[in-house]
Structure formats: structure tokens, C-alpha cells
Structures
1.
Amino acid sequence: MGALAEGLTRNQALVLDRLVAAGTPLSAYAILDALRPSGLKAPLQVYRALDRLVDRGLVHRLESLNAFIACCHDQHDRTAVFLICQRCGAVDEEDAPTLQGAIADLARASNFAVDSVVLEIKGLCRGCR
Amino acid sequence: MGALAEGLTRNQALVLDRLVAAGTPLSAYAILDALRPSGLKAPLQVYRALDRLVDRGLVHRLESLNAFIACCHDQHDRTAVFLICQRCGAVDEEDAPTLQGAIADLARASNFAVDSVVLEIKGLCRGCR
DNA sequence: GCAAATGACGTTATGCTATAACATTTCATT
DNA sequence: AATGAAATGTTATAGCATAACGTCATTTGC
């Protein structure tokens, strides 16, 4: 079991380890089921750990899947772009500076102060198209 | 009570009218509660109507809110972008060709075939910032 | 015409997702 | 030790969405 990042509590480390091991999105309840042998018993234990991990940028929430995935980059830019394959379920996290710029431009034009961005693209990945 | 579009069934028209009248996002259950006087009784009646309306592009689903909003444009051939104010709850639907282009470029670079795009920007609107 | 296919509808039941509320524990700092 | 902040454990509940059944009306093709 890896100490994948410093300063994590036991529950947070368990949840993060599980997500990293999976490499794919997992629902909170799937995580809970996987961690029952480790002693977790209630959804709230998982949700609380996920909240902290998302705050730190170690985990991303996929709104369109109601699921969570470990961040695959070491630098945790808050605005990630996800390519979600509808056939195989793979999720690719992209860094998209061009998109960041376009979003910033759009927000500026509307006089809108951006806090966070949800950008999830669904379709078929390279291997499945 | 407008016949807001042709070819809608009674339930679909009820749901769409309610969303248009609201002008803001509504959850499926909020719609159901509003339409109980009109005879709707079960969530599935609302969800089925919403499915058809979303298929036609008359309604959008806001993934990050688990809610639905009437499309404010008459034609909707593009992917919509939503600016969601975290303070007043207003949702602004934008047409963003520049973003479309950036998304297409990104997908092309990853050899990813885009089916649909979820793009929801949260922050403070002009009046609330 | 009439059978088959289609799609909407109604209803009950169920499952999945997420948080409220409250008591307790842990741990760093003073 | 005393304090305060954060994490934990637990039960209960709220909120979101669909499965599975049967019915009805309309369209399509023979």
C-alpha cells in the first residue's frame, strides 16, 4: 500500500490508493465496497475523504459520471479536460491551455468571474472508434 | 400555457412549459412537484419527458447541478456552454464557436471521436461579482 | 382490413448518490 | 494538561434516477 502523498489521513490514503490502483473512474459506493475489508463502513467516510482529496487536486470528480478519478499529473491544475470513452470507459485527462484561454476569453466577454470549470467530452477513444 | 413546440406530447409540453416559465434550472423532482396539480404523479413521467426534450435540443441537462434548463436559443446545433452563478443561481447559455474549435482540435490531436460535450463554468455573474 | 411494430403512458418498486446531525476521538500547539 | 481544529464513527434521511411490468394509441406494411 503506497503512501502516495504526504499528509494524508488513513481514510484519505485508502481512498486515494484505491483510485490510483483502479486507473479508471469509480463511484463513491464502489470505493466503499472495495474498502470494506479495510474497515470502512459508511458512505460518509468515503465522501469526506474524497472532499479533501478533491480540494488538494489529487482526485477529480467527473460530474457526468457521478464518479471520481485520481489525477494523473503531478501538478494539479484545477481545470482539467476529460476525454471519456463511451465504449471502453477509459478516461484521458488532458492539459488544454488553448481551451483555458478560450474559456477565459468567454468569461471576460460576459464579465463573469470563473471559479471552476467542468469540461467533459464524451465519445470514442483512439482504440474504440 | 403555450404550445411551445409542435409535436410534443402532453407530458412533454407540461415539462417544457414549466422549464421555460422558470427560466432557471429545475431538478426533475422540482418539476414533478410543480406539475402534480396537472396530474403528474411519478418521477418517471418527468424523466421520460425530459429525455425526449433533451434529445430534441429543447432542454439541456446541467450535469454539475443535476438539473435541467430550457434551451434559450431556437436552434441548437452546437455544443452549449453554461455560465453558472454560484451566488444568484442564474445560468447563462452561451454559443462559443471559439471553444468549439479548440475542443475539436484537442479531440483531433488525441484521435478521439466526439459525441457530446459537457462544459459548465461556475463562478460569479456580472451582477454578483 | 388487420397484424405487427413502435412509442408514449401509468404505476409500483427499487437502486444509486449524497448529506444532515450528533457524539467522539485525535493531534498539534500552547 | 488545556485548548482548538480537524478527522472520525454512526445512524438516519434526503435527493436523484431507473427497472420492470402492463396498457394504450398510432403508424406501417402486407
2.
Amino acid sequence: MQQSFMPEIAVCDCESIHEDVVAAVRGQLPEEDLMIDMAEAFRIFGDSTRVRILFALKAHEMCVCDISVLLGMTKSAVSHQLRILKQVNLVKYRKVGRVVYYSLADEHVKTIFSACMEHVMED
Amino acid sequence: MQQSFMPEIAVCDCESIHEDVVAAVRGQLPEEDLMIDMAEAFRIFGDSTRVRILFALKAHEMCVCDISVLLGMTKSAVSHQLRILKQVNLVKYRKVGRVVYYSLADEHVKTIFSACMEHVMED
DNA sequence: TTTATGGTTGAACAACTGTTCAACTGTTAG
DNA sequence: CTAACAGTTGAACAGTTGTTCAACCATAAA
């Protein structure tokens, strides 16, 4: 969701110094909604608990209890994060009796993780 | 950064149901620090203001004033975000008189944005 | 020197976020 | 049925975050 107390009208406190550049760049910017969606997607990955859960599920399908033990967290904390990952379709689940098995929903995660890992490694 | 009131000892509230799976996955997980660094990197991209600034700089080098006008934000707000992007080496700058020109520091941003854009597009 | 302006900075504030806790649901075992 | 347990959920709380505001620094123009 982001900070949602943005001003209704976009206001800045100066005149543009290079109007030509601003006009040109304005023409090249992606749709506002796309940039917001991208930020939203990145935000999901911007928490180490969620990253750890995703790496775990990348290795193997697991139930909440197992993830809980693996990461040393309560089932509740894990469940809350799984709900977020489920909402954005990054993980899926199947129920077997009282046990719920979670797994990655698609291959995107792996692609994005690889691209990011290179970036992190370089610094 | 992150939430820093984590418990000293990792505690969970159950026994593992599939010990073999947990053991196997534990062996495949990346270093804890790597996962934290990855989350940290994603966190930077997880804000639409920063994403918009990066897209703008991807198109052309710009001064704070121009970005300010382009995005309809105060110079202060832009400057604060540029400081964050500077700290993690995503943008660099050069001064000409009182004007500070910002630009992307490397090609990583473009790679990561491309990978993410595909993901966002699909939904 | 004085004034104006591009840009930075730190404090303050409201909104947001992740974990904890307790209560709860649903399924299995006795 | 009852007890146990995997998992979920919502409220509460402390910590974090982004924008605003005011003060400030540095350079350029007058």
C-alpha cells in the first residue's frame, strides 16, 4: 500500500532548469501504474523473512510447521507472511488433513532472485 | 535495518513434522547474510518514488530541480530519496556550480527492472 | 557584501509493517 | 464426544519509513 497520505495535487518548490530534458524524460517514463506495481512487487521481496521463506520453498515444498522450525519462528509469524505471499501469487498450497503444504507458485521468483543475487554479490 | 527487535534465540512453537525435508532444505539455504542483503536490496526498490526517480535517471541525467518538477515533489523529498539511492550506489552525481546532476551508477538497475517488469506484466 | 537560489539536512509526524499473543477453526486420534 | 494439534486470524505494540517543515550550506549574480 505505501504511504497513502500523498498530497492531492503534485507540488514542487522550484522551476525546471532544463525544461527540454524534463519534457523528453516525461515522454519516456512508463505508465504511473506500472511503476507503482513494480515498487509493490519489490516491496514484497524487501523483507528477509519472506526472502528466507521463498528460498526454503524454492528447495522443497513444506508445511508451516517445518518452515517454522527451519527459520526458528512461530507458526503464527510464518503464517502471516505466507498469507502475504499467497495474496500476490508467489506461493500456492495444498491441504492434506490438517497439514498445509506450501510451494512456489511459478518460476518468476527464481528468475528475479538470480538477477538480484548477481547485484548483491558484486558490491 | 529491518525490524531489529528479533528474539536473541530462534524459537518456534512446534516440532518438525518432516525432519528429513527440513534437514535437506537447511543444507540448501544460502548464507543468512546473503538473504538479508537481498531483502535489503529489494527494499530499496520497494518504494514508488525511488522507482520513478530511477526510471527518470535511466532516461537522462538530471538535476534535483528537474526531478522535482518531473515528479511533482519538493526538492527536499527528492533529495532525501537520492541520498538513499546514493548510499547503496545506485546513483552517482556531479556538481556544476550549484547544480547537482544525478545519473544511474551502473547497469544493474536496468537488468533488475527488466526482470521485474516481466513479472508485473504477466498478472 | 548582499541577495537569490540549488541543494542538503535533521527533527517531527503520521502511516505502515512485522512479530507477538490469545483466541479460534478444522481435522485427526483416542 | 473429547483432547490434541496444524494452521489461521485480528488486535496490539514497537520499530521503521517517507514527507514536510524550517534551518542551513554553498555558489552565483547584483
3.
Amino acid sequence: MDFIFVMTSEAAKIFVDYLAGNGLSMTPQRKVIVETFLETKGHFSAEELLALVQKTVPEVGQATVYRTLKLLVDSGLAESHDFGCGVALYEHSYGHEHHDHLVCTRCQKKVEVVDESIEKRQEILARKNGYVLTNHRMMLFGLCPACQKLRDKEEAES
Amino acid sequence: MDFIFVMTSEAAKIFVDYLAGNGLSMTPQRKVIVETFLETKGHFSAEELLALVQKTVPEVGQATVYRTLKLLVDSGLAESHDFGCGVALYEHSYGHEHHDHLVCTRCQKKVEVVDESIEKRQEILARKNGYVLTNHRMMLFGLCPACQKLRDKEEAES
DNA sequence: AATAGGATGAAAATGGATTTCATTTTCGTC
DNA sequence: GACGAAAATGAAATCCATTTTCATCCTATT
């Protein structure tokens, strides 16, 4: 494969630096995976990313996608979340403020939420127990507006 | 098997009622699983519960433990949590106030935490986005006091 | 005690994620 | 440019918690 490694976005530079800093090398596979990752918005699974990558380079293997996704997480570009649907979903974390998620239990629609006072309280809770807080996971589950309407309609029919 | 089904605790009654209310029957296996569950404190996996159950009745199968654990969750006696360690951990939920967890990332020590103002804010966040909040998961990760000391000692040595 | 449907255990299946391993690439060095 | 050690890759195998299958057994009601 004859590739020219030009990755211009800031995020891409971070990844390249991460590789260099850890004695890892850029490869055509990593390049296409990272580029595809950076172009993809929202929350997606490793399998979905693999499918997108294979649209460009069909011979990329799933193991490589899983491996590169791990590098993306370690380099700080990606974050992995378990929304309880059985697969890990990934999202961008570079250039995105920290946030938690509000998830519709019916259609899976996800809204990013932040609340400074919750974050402060979490810190206090940890300290009160002598823990040094390193990170947290908060997920709110409920019915989104659209699904509330659908549910109401269904109930009216029955 | 000749069993006399006497389960006297309130929790046990709830389970029996749940079975009756759903056309399910009490069986020796369910009885020993529920009794063992009720005697066990803290957080434990299905496999750990299976081992405890088999101390009393070795021929109980793991599928039955998984199935009964599901009934326990549905009946409101148990709660299942994913602490990110690869297995679901269960804990009692009857007679236990709602709480979230503060987990040591090193020794897995878990502390139950509650914060009314966080709960209120979660409700507000959901409402602000038009969602009807049904439940939430919050997990705080950090280093517990003991593990902080261990880490400091290790760092001093190196 | 007959019977229908539920419950059980052993074993197989599931499925996302990881590992293995033979092969291919990368990249610093000659 | 060519060399060679170390890293990276893809296909397939493996892992492992959980679920499902299925033949058999039990329960509750008649």
C-alpha cells in the first residue's frame, strides 16, 4: 500500500503524537480507521465503525478496529460507554466537554447533559469517604418526548 | 425431594407472592437459591451465588441460578450492577434505600452513597430535556484510603 | 393417578471482545 | 536502497458470562 500520511486535524495530530510517544507506528489501517472515526458523529459500536472503514478499505480486519479503538481511547480521542445495550458505544472526546448522558429507554436517543453542581457533589461524596475521585459514570434513563407521545397513543388504542 | 416451604422473612414473602402473582411455582431449587441470596451480604456474582447454593444442594444448575436471579430482580428483591469488572454483581434491594456506589479502582471496595441534591438535579436535567426520568445509574470511581497508602508506599520504594 | 404446563440441568449456543499465530510492514541502521 | 528486529495485521480460534435448547422431571389441579 502506498499511502501518504497527511492527517491535518488537531485530533489527528494528537493520535500521531500518541503513537510516536509510545513507540508505535502509523499504518494505513490505523490511518483509515482514525479518519473514519473522526468523520463519524454520535455514538457507534466497533462493528459499525468496522463497516464504515471497510467501505473505504474492505480488507481491514475487525481485530484491528478493536485494537485501534483502544488506542483512540488511550490517546484521549475517544470514550467508550456501556449503555446497557450489550455493546460498547464510542464517541469523540477530544474537543468535547465532559458530559453525562440522558438515554431514552425506548428509542435509545441520547442527550448530553452536564450539571456543575452534581459534579461538585460527587467530589464531596468521594472526599467525605476518604476516596480520591478519578472519574465517574452517570446515566439517566427515561422516555424522550417523542416516545412519550407514542406510548400515550398506544395506550389510547388499547 | 421432600421440602417444607417455610420462608418467614418479609423478603421471602415478597418473592413467594411474586411467584404466585405470575403463575409461577415455588420449587426446592428456587427456595434454596432465594434463602442463600437472602443470607448473603454485599455484592456478589451469579457464579459466587451458585457456589454458595451448591454448598447446600450441589445439584442445582447454574442456569437455574441465573433464571432465579432474574426473578429476584423482577420481584424487586435484588438489583444488578455492572461495575465494569466483566460480570454482573447483585445486591439486596428490599429494605435497602436507593443508593449509588463509590468504587475503589484498585481493590474494588464499594461504599454506598446517596445525595439528595444530586437526585433532585437529575430530575431537573431530565425534565429540562422533556424526558420522563425512570431511573439512573451513577458510579463514582477513585482510590480508597487504604489503596492511597499502598500507592504512596509503592511510589516511595521506586 | 392423570394431565398439562412449568421447571430443571447438562450441554450447546450466543456474541462481543480478545488472543493466537503465521505473515507482512515499518523504520532505524548499514 | 537493503537488512533485520520489532511491531502490526487479518483470519481464525478462543474466551467467557450469559442464554437457550431440549429431554426429562416436577407441580398443581382435576
